[in-house]
Amino acid sequence: MDVELLRTFIEVQQTRHFGRAAENLFITQSAVSARIRQLEDELGVRLFMRDRNNIQLTTAGQKLLRHAEAIIANWNRARLDVAVGDDSGQHITMAALPNLWAILIPDWLQWVQRQHGDVAISADALGPESILRRVLDRSLDFGLLFEPPRLPELTVTESCRFRLLLVSSQPQAPLEQALGLHYIYVDWGGDFAHQHAQLFPDAPAPGLRLGLGAAALELLASGAGAAYLAEPQVQPWVEAGRLFPVPQAPVIERQVYAVYRQDTDRREIIETLSDLSGRIDKLQKPPLPLP
């Protein structure tokens, strides 16, 4: 099967539009239609339900999507492995939750380049379900998650820990005020949600919920409010007197877990690279943006 057929299938699924898929793939719309027809003929099923303004996957298309993504990911990995060559060491693919990128990954990548220059890295930011699926189908060597999965095929180890601090744009903000009208709830995973509910059972429902700590940090830096943010993320802002820890607010600790297949043949390098416990205290402080 031509890999380009699967790429076209995935692009149509993502855009829900043959014309936009053609633009993204730099081919004609008729070529997109021809590729989809060829793929349907090879599989003997319809992959899309085509209405004038609504393109949806059929049941068969939904089943194919997961396999198509795995095939493309593995093909890309194979190309990278071949390109790395015998003299350039190993190629490792990893992914982390988006909320971990601003905190850990840029510094970690620099450390890998300095200490493990013979290792080529492909890194991505993905949601937890995508990370687990891609580790299971071997298109990722390891992933970094907040909640440890319980699957017999996977090995789970603690990668690192960091603290979440309740910080406010106002100095000496009372806890009740910080959790009030301008509180920003950041999604730090299910365990955080459970602890948050136990610690603040009477707090009002937050007016704003965000999936990214970096987005909350930008909002706090430009206006009034408070949020639980990662200590490495906010430390430069606190030291510069632009954000302030809320007195009496409890500190919440977050664990980060590395997950990889038990039967991997790259266990040694994965264990070395995924242990970030020694990196938290050595993180380079990002420069503050100009006021």
Report on the structure:
This protein is an alpha/beta fold. It folds into 3 domains: 3-69, Arc Repressor Mutant, subunit A (Orthogonal Bundle); 79-160 and 256-282, D-Maltodextrin-Binding Protein, domain 2 (3-Layer(aba) Sandwich); 161-254, D-Maltodextrin-Binding Protein, domain 2 (3-Layer(aba) Sandwich). The protein is built from 12 helices and 11 strands. Strand 7, helix 9 (190-199) and strand 8 form a beta-alpha-beta unit. The termini are far apart.
Helix content estimate: 40-55%
What's the number of extended β-strand segments?
A: 11
Shape: globular
Briefly note the CATH topology name of the largest domain.
D-Maltodextrin-Binding Protein, domain 2
Q: What is the assigned CATH homologous superfamily of the largest domain? A: Periplasmic binding protein-like II
GO molecular function: DNA-binding transcription factor activity; transcription cis-regulatory region binding
Organism: Methylohalomonas lacus
Domain HTH lysR-type: 1-58
Protein name: DNA-binding transcriptional LysR family regulator
